[in-house]
Amino acid sequence: MQGQAQQQAYDRGITIFSPDGRLYQVEYAREAVKRGTASIGIRTAEGVILAADKRSRSPLMEPESVEKIHKADEHIGVASAGHVADARQLIDFARRESQVNRLRYGEPIGIETLTKTITDHIQQYTQIGGARPFGVALIIGGIEDGEPRIFETDPSGTPYEWKALSIGANRADIREYLEEQYDEEMSLEDGIALALEALEDASSDDGLEPTGLGVATINAETETYHEHSVEELEEILETHGLLATDEDEESDDE
Amino acid sequence: MQGQAQQQAYDRGITIFSPDGRLYQVEYAREAVKRGTASIGIRTAEGVILAADKRSRSPLMEPESVEKIHKADEHIGVASAGHVADARQLIDFARRESQVNRLRYGEPIGIETLTKTITDHIQQYTQIGGARPFGVALIIGGIEDGEPRIFETDPSGTPYEWKALSIGANRADIREYLEEQYDEEMSLEDGIALALEALEDASSDDGLEPTGLGVATINAETETYHEHSVEELEEILETHGLLATDEDEESDDE
Amino acid sequence: MQGQAQQQAYDRGITIFSPDGRLYQVEYAREAVKRGTASIGIRTAEGVILAADKRSRSPLMEPESVEKIHKADEHIGVASAGHVADARQLIDFARRESQVNRLRYGEPIGIETLTKTITDHIQQYTQIGGARPFGVALIIGGIEDGEPRIFETDPSGTPYEWKALSIGANRADIREYLEEQYDEEMSLEDGIALALEALEDASSDDGLEPTGLGVATINAETETYHEHSVEELEEILETHGLLATDEDEESDDE
Amino acid sequence: MQGQAQQQAYDRGITIFSPDGRLYQVEYAREAVKRGTASIGIRTAEGVILAADKRSRSPLMEPESVEKIHKADEHIGVASAGHVADARQLIDFARRESQVNRLRYGEPIGIETLTKTITDHIQQYTQIGGARPFGVALIIGGIEDGEPRIFETDPSGTPYEWKALSIGANRADIREYLEEQYDEEMSLEDGIALALEALEDASSDDGLEPTGLGVATINAETETYHEHSVEELEEILETHGLLATDEDEESDDE
Amino acid sequence: MQGQAQQQAYDRGITIFSPDGRLYQVEYAREAVKRGTASIGIRTAEGVILAADKRSRSPLMEPESVEKIHKADEHIGVASAGHVADARQLIDFARRESQVNRLRYGEPIGIETLTKTITDHIQQYTQIGGARPFGVALIIGGIEDGEPRIFETDPSGTPYEWKALSIGANRADIREYLEEQYDEEMSLEDGIALALEALEDASSDDGLEPTGLGVATINAETETYHEHSVEELEEILETHGLLATDEDEESDDE
Amino acid sequence: MQGQAQQQAYDRGITIFSPDGRLYQVEYAREAVKRGTASIGIRTAEGVILAADKRSRSPLMEPESVEKIHKADEHIGVASAGHVADARQLIDFARRESQVNRLRYGEPIGIETLTKTITDHIQQYTQIGGARPFGVALIIGGIEDGEPRIFETDPSGTPYEWKALSIGANRADIREYLEEQYDEEMSLEDGIALALEALEDASSDDGLEPTGLGVATINAETETYHEHSVEELEEILETHGLLATDEDEESDDE
Amino acid sequence: MQGQAQQQAYDRGITIFSPDGRLYQVEYAREAVKRGTASIGIRTAEGVILAADKRSRSPLMEPESVEKIHKADEHIGVASAGHVADARQLIDFARRESQVNRLRYGEPIGIETLTKTITDHIQQYTQIGGARPFGVALIIGGIEDGEPRIFETDPSGTPYEWKALSIGANRADIREYLEEQYDEEMSLEDGIALALEALEDASSDDGLEPTGLGVATINAETETYHEHSVEELEEILETHGLLATDEDEESDDE
């Protein structure tokens, strides 16, 4: 009781510290991230894989409209978890920054540069009053100087680089799975399989439906973003024995 | 009691997160949507149907002035549910954006583009202080590159694409009815009938009165918005056995 | 007790939603409207009638200065109920908009156009912080393309079109009387009589005093606003047996 | 107790409505008016009379510096009651508006026009945040097109026209006296006498001291503001038997 | 208890009214004035006298630096009581206004004009949010058109003209002394003596020390401000039997 | 208890008065000054002495970086006590003002002029909202027209001139020591000794370490600021028998 | 209990003083610094050493992306502890200031100058409302005029110069270790060893892993920043017997 009352005293203000030096609003924004379905990023020698659980609420909803994987530039993809409308703001910001870089310097923006421009933007919403923090985490993956790279942004505005990571629901379980199974030298295809296996492992369902998934890759050679179609996903799921058996109602999706 | 007191601590601020990562003001705005009468959107191969329950409070009120179905552009209609004055703001915003697109690019705005411009606008009201969120949901339907499309916007600023959906009162019941009866290949006329049946099914009354309804279609071939007159509605209701039998006082409406 | 405490938690903020999706400040502004004396609007084939109860507090007060009926443009009148100073702001706004329309387009502003410009203005005061909503409702009546039309604005900024309506005190009683007695085909003179009868019916006094009334008409043919003099009103009241018998102190008012 | 606690919840905010539709800050500003000494305005066929109780706190204070009656323009006087410093702001505003009118249109400003410009200014302080309402009421009297007119402004920003009125302390008593004694056809001199009798009647003292009074007239013929000297007042008081008998300490005032 | 809790509810806000129409912040600022040592102003036919109790806290403090009497212009002096730093702001304001008047009109500013410019400035800090009222009262004395005049400003921004007055500590006692002893026809020297006697009368000490006093005069003939030296003061005190007998430690002050 | 609760009600606001006319935030800022180590200023016929206790927290900290004595201009030094970062803001402000004076008028700024410019700046932070007061006091010493002068600024923005004073910790003890020992005619060297003796007297330690001290003088003849080196201080301390005997670890400091 | 409640009353406001003259928000920001892992700065005759504990949360995280040591300019390095996103803001600020100095003056910025520019920036966030303080401490080390120098900044904006210091977790233990072992004349290599020994001493683990460390030096002769590679660190750790024996999983990191 005592602790709770004390906590309430601090979390009303947007940008102030608690006595133990924490920013509650930022921590609550992290809870908003956990409420979102999982997204995964994996880096292999051949490129970057982004995968996301994007099950829709109703068979009448177009699965494409559940936005979890976004193309930010030719060579950069972004996966998100958390508050969808907030994610859109940051994706738009990322796209503008990417275009500005091409216009100003005549070359694609670096993955690390883009990430840090975004995290600096996010940090402002945790220090300056008059707005709340962004309730979303991003995985920013792409090719920089021929090298695949993956970064994470969180609501505090801290950037981290990963070999493989997950954000959103079941983060701990999926990370443990990735830590056990990850091999830096695997192929892009094996990376996709690992991402899907990790999602399936953390899911309470048996198998995955292609319409409830989003998968994109950025190939290190071509440096090009590719979003997988439902057909491609179905084939991959089948190949790896991950296809849900009771999937019947949504298979004829265009 | 405990839980209620805790909740009160968070919902006073417009733009802050609760400890479990939710934005109460956005959730309360969703309640404002539920307080509004139902609107329905249905996509068929032949076009888009928008339908709304717009019963007026008094026989002296002009039913036309109950605004639920709006023409946003030649090829786009919008149905709303929730706070009427808020809806007007977003409709005006949509109309301006549509006109700007025609002026700037010489072509009609895309349905998805328009939707996302609106949801980005809505999101700002959930993150920046000094204003409350919009207490309204919209169904934005129209023809894009010859294809009928329907999108939903909610108070958080999240866009979703649907084959068929409802917003406002009785949302769950009407969605269930639509999930059971929806057929993507049906004709525009059958789509209107389905929408009206869904409204009637969720209503406590027996049958529907044409003056208490709003129905508009956007034909995929002509790409033109058409709002149905009371006479047209009466004919359709009669054809499908949905006409209220006790409708007597408002039938002579111009 | 519980409920009251909970309510207090929400109604302090100007622009926030309560957990059940209501805007308390707007609802309290509606109470301010109810505290005002009644105004009535009636539409007939021959034109528009605006009538208002404008009894003054003292025989020394000039009844003309109790502002309830206002001329907004040659062809538009406005009746108000609620906070007088707020009404003046909206009337001024209406007059400016009307003049701007004449200057810009060389023609009188439409009744619906004017109404919606006003309601959009009102809505801003319910969503953006730093100000309270307007505590007033308006009846905006006039002639548009030869047709008499009457609209209502309320503190939420919602526009509605009516055949006949009342705002302010005794709204429910007067509306019921109007619903029973209203006939769309009656003459302008009969419309005035109906409005006065409705006011008298809802009043606790026996009969009406001409100095305590405001009546204006906008004739569909001449499209001209006319405010009735005390003498004209006295004659009408006498003709319809509505003249207060104990009216003695204020009859010689200039 | 209950009621009081509830009231406190609403009156802290400057510009918000209470659940019963009242603006407490405006009502408290009216209390500030009642705390001020009385001012009276009377309209006769011959002109306008403004009179005020301006007793000073100490014989060492210059009675002229107790500001209750102000000249706003050649043809306009203003009497105030309430917060003195606030009154000065509105008087300055009135003088500027009067001068602007002369410069812009080459003619004296109308009494009604000036009043409504002032009340619109006052209303802003009751709706927009960041300031409190004006704690003062004004009687604005003058000659317009040869006709004497008197208006009242209150803290809500509502304008009313009167034949005779009082503001400030003992308002109810003085109004009752005026209602009984007022005669529209009386001379300017009789009007002064009536105002002074009304002040004396409401006062607990026996008789009035000329140095504790302010009286100004605006003559309908000359359209000129005239502030009465102590000597003039003494003579009038004597003539009407209103002179205080114990007046000895301040009679040699310059 | 009840009363106190109620009071707390209102005095937190800077610019709002209490239910009985008072502005607590202004009243508390008046308390800040009372916490300051006394200042006195006296008007005689020969000119204006300003006097102040300016005892310093320590013999090491330079008595000249205790600012109570200020020269605002050649012909105007100002005595203050209350918050010293606030006084400095208003004195600077007064000096600027005086210089502006000389530059703009080529003549010295009037005492009344200057006072009202200052009180209008003070009033703003009692109505507009974002700042607190000034915690200081001023006595503004000088020669206008050959006539000595003295005005008072208080934290509400109200101007009053006096023959003689005091502000700050012991105000009531000193005023009573002045009311008894004041004679409009006395000489400037007698006015100084009266001011010092009044200070000594209200003081708990026996006699006055010249270093603990500030005295300035503005002569009606020369229209020039003169601040008295410690030596001049010592002589005057001795002449009038007001010199403290135990004054030994500070007499060698330069 | 009662008193404490009442106090809490007022000290939350930055710029408001308490019922007894005090500004709590300014008083709390004075507490911040008391939390700082002591600084002393002494004026002699030969010039100004500034001295400060600047013991560092660790032998690894550079004693020079403990900022207590600052050169503001060639002829002006400033000693501070209280919040270090706030002091830096005011020192920077003082330096800018000094340079501006040289540029604008071609001469060194006066000590009194500089002090009052600073106190006016400080006062703004006690009246205008949106910032807290400065938590620092300053001793501003220098030569003006050949005369040594010393001023104090406090968090309220009040300027005082002194012959000798101390600010910060042990203020009362040190002032008492200075009052007893101060002699206006002593030499600059004796003034330094007096300052160090006063610091030693108030300290709980036996003797002083030169690295824990800051001493600067401004010579009345040369009008030049001189900051004493550790070696100079060691010699002075030894001469006056004030050198700490156990000083061993920091003596070889460069 | 009492104390806690009292504390809560003050720490909600960003920029206000508590009754005992403390700024709680600044003190809580210091807690945020203590929550960060340790960073160490050591100054030797040969140059500056910066070292930091930068263990990552997961073997999949790239250790390089844990930002603790930053190059600010050719001759300046910065080590941070605390809120990572806040540190980035200050590092960016430092880099901009360094570049501006080179552009404006054609020479590298001084270490002290840069530090004080940063602390002045930090101070603003503790005095002006609308933002929280920075939750980070910095060690700013570099070569100025051939001399190695190290400064500390804390959340209050106070600058201190050190011979050797630590910030972040275990500050007291590491400082004690440094005070015992520090020798100003040691070589750069010995300084690195001392920093690592201090980190190991304060750590609960046995030995250090090179991938969990950050070490940079700025050589006094070359005046150039050098960040040590994992290989270089491994060699140093082995030489000094500080290499963790169970380090196996991350050794092949590129």
UniProtKB/TrEMBL annotation, chains A, B, C, D, E, F, G:
<dbReference type="InterPro" id="IPR023332">
    <property type="entry name" value="Proteasome_alpha-type"/>
</dbReference>
<dbReference type="Pfam" id="PF10584">
    <property type="entry name" value="Proteasome_A_N"/>
</dbReference>
<dbReference type="Pfam" id="PF00227">
    <property type="entry name" value="Proteasome"/>
</dbReference>
<dbReference type="GO" id="GO:0004298">
    <property type="term" value="F:threonine-type endopeptidase activity"/>
</dbReference>
<comment type="subunit">
    <text>The 20S proteasome core is composed of 14 alpha and 14 beta subunits that assemble into four stacked heptameric rings, resulting in a barrel-shaped structure. The two inner rings, each composed of seven catalytic beta subunits, are sandwiched by two outer rings, each composed of seven alpha subunits. H.volcanii produces at least 2 types of 20S proteasomes: an alpha1-beta proteasome and a proteasome containing all three subunits (alpha1, alpha2, and beta) that appears to be asymmetrical with homo-oligomeric alpha1 and alpha2 rings positioned on separate ends.</text>
</comment>
<dbReference type="GO" id="GO:0010498">
    <property type="term" value="P:proteasomal protein catabolic process"/>
</dbReference>
<comment type="subunit">
    <text>The 20S proteasome core is composed of 14 alpha and 14 beta subunits that assemble into four stacked heptameric rings, resulting in a barrel-shaped structure. The two inner rings, each composed of seven catalytic beta subunits, are sandwiched by two outer rings, each composed of seven alpha subunits. The catalytic chamber with the active sites is on the inside of the barrel. Has a gated structure, the ends of the cylinder being occluded by the N-termini of the alpha-subunits. Is capped at one or both ends by the proteasome regulatory ATPase, PAN.</text>
</comment>
<dbReference type="GO" id="GO:0006511">
    <property type="term" value="P:ubiquitin-dependent protein catabolic process"/>
</dbReference>
<comment type="function">
    <text>Component of the proteasome core, a large protease complex with broad specificity involved in protein degradation.</text>
</comment>
<keyword id="KW-0378">Hydrolase</keyword>
<dbReference type="InterPro" id="IPR001353">
    <property type="entry name" value="Proteasome_sua/b"/>
</dbReference>
<protein>
    <recommendedName>
        <fullName>Proteasome subunit alpha</fullName>
    </recommendedName>
</protein>
<keyword id="KW-0647">Proteasome</keyword>
<feature type="domain" description="Proteasome alpha-type subunits">
    <location>
        <begin position="10"/>
        <end position="32"/>
    </location>
</feature>
<dbReference type="InterPro" id="IPR050115">
    <property type="entry name" value="Proteasome_alpha"/>
</dbReference>
<keyword id="KW-0963">Cytoplasm</keyword>
<dbReference type="InterPro" id="IPR000426">
    <property type="entry name" value="Proteasome_asu_N"/>
</dbReference>
<dbReference type="GO" id="GO:0019773">
    <property type="term" value="C:proteasome core complex, alpha-subunit complex"/>
</dbReference>
<dbReference type="GO" id="GO:0005737">
    <property type="term" value="C:cytoplasm"/>
</dbReference>
<dbReference type="InterPro" id="IPR029055">
    <property type="entry name" value="Ntn_hydrolases_N"/>
</dbReference>
<dbReference type="InterPro" id="IPR019982">
    <property type="entry name" value="Proteasome_asu_arc"/>
</dbReference>
<comment type="similarity">
    <text>Belongs to the peptidase T1A family.</text>
</comment>
